Amino acid sequence: MQTHPAKRVEIIIEAPAQRRLVRAMNDAGIDAYTILPVLGGSGRSGRWSRDGQVSTASGMISVTCILRSDRLDGLLNAALEVVERHIGVVSVTDCEVLRAERF
Amino acid sequence: MDGILALAAANLISPVILSFALGVAAALARSDLTVPEAAAKALSIYLLFAIGFKGGAAVAANGIDARLVGTLIAGLILSALLPFVAFALLKVLTNLSRTDAAAVAAHYGSISIVTFVAGTTVLESAGLTAEGYMVATAAVMEAPAILSALWLISRGNGDDEMEPGLWREILLNGSIVLLVGSFIIGAVTGQDGLDSIASFIVAPFTGVLCLFLLDMGLVAGRGLRTSARLLGAGAIVFGVTMPLVGSLAGLGAALLLGLSTGGAMLLMTLSASASYIAVPAAMRVALPEANPSIYLTLSLGVTFPFNLTIGLPIYLAIARFATGG
């Protein structure tokens, strides 16, 4: 099977910042991504869990975006503006995709 | 004094408070009991809709008068000013940073709708009622405190700029929209509207409140278990002192307005309560540098249980004494 190299960016960020992050990504021309709720975790800011939360304040989300490597800097610059002040993690990994023209 | 103790004792063994206690105990004992996020949100939507609708129907029955407008304005002023009192108290009692203190202060100017709902059940068990528009007052008091906290921070930083769109997000927060919206529906449809859905929003109300408070107890207990070490003795003293200070400010406003005993008790409760739904979300956007573990644990782990167990009977006793009700 023919595969093509791509970059997989995962941004885990506080749920209240979701709208800002998505807006910044859209402004940078990134309009293909997946948002997932995150069940819970632990980090520098302590433990947290989605269970029982009424407010979005304690929730985290995961935004995953797969794109060509030449578009990576645009996404990271846009994301950093939002992520910098918030609790969260940004990671970039190499991956392979099947249909290169979609990225 | 005996009256306050009897009220407090009766309040402590009510299903609502015992449900909260069960949640706290389960969390502290590390039980795997949880309320799924979606269920917790559904319970909160039900409570907000029911309380808003019932308040609107009460206003429809009693009409709109100058006292209603005065109470709304008083609520707005209380919410805007209480963060300054809280901020000053925090500076005296704790060594929190300016950002953390401002974020905490915003919570104590805003309100907890569940404390308000618990206050109405305490009133009902004492055979008292309150002005229906106290629900609208609760909605008005949600947001001004956030502005005050942001002003406290901007004054410290010399930065007056506010992020575009932030106010839209704060004012259109889901809990405010639902509370105001259901209040309007209740006011428009009146008693007939309430009668038509009473079997849904009146009869099951206390049972749903019990489940919601079970969840609040679980969240508060988990917060205390994992984050209590972040709170020093000064912060805990603040968590029980500030509600008393706020309640007295609410009482002063209620007496100026000539509210009923029930109305005075609810305005005291609103002024004494600390937000844990609308303000934490706003703070994560507006002041992400503030530590959420501090303000959430203080609000939900210290002040909320204090108000629920001891505060409400005290506010009712004081309101009765002050209004002669």
Automatic annotation (TrEMBL), chain A:
Matching Gene3D superfamilies, A to Z?
Answer: 3.30.70.120
Q: Which InterPro entries match?
A: N-reg_PII, N-reg_PII-like_a/b, N-reg_PII/ATP_PRibTrfase_C
Q: Which GO terms describe its molecular function?
A: enzyme regulator activity
- Short name of any one Pfam family annotated for the protein: P-II
Give the UniProt record's GO annotations in the biological process aspect: regulation of nitrogen utilization
Kindly provide the name given to this protein in its UniProt entry: Nitrogen regulatory protein P-II
Automatic annotation (TrEMBL), chain B:
Segments passing through the bilayer? 12-31, 43-62, 68-90, 102-121, 133-153, 165-185, 197-218, 230-257, 263-282, 294-318
Recite the UniProt keywords alphabetically. Answer: Membrane, Transmembrane, Transmembrane helix
Under InterPro entries, the record lists:
Sbt_1
* Signal sequence coordinates: none
Q: Which Pfam families match?
A: Sbt_1
Lyase as a keyword?
Answer: no
Question: What protein name applies here?
Answer: Sodium-dependent bicarbonate transport family permease
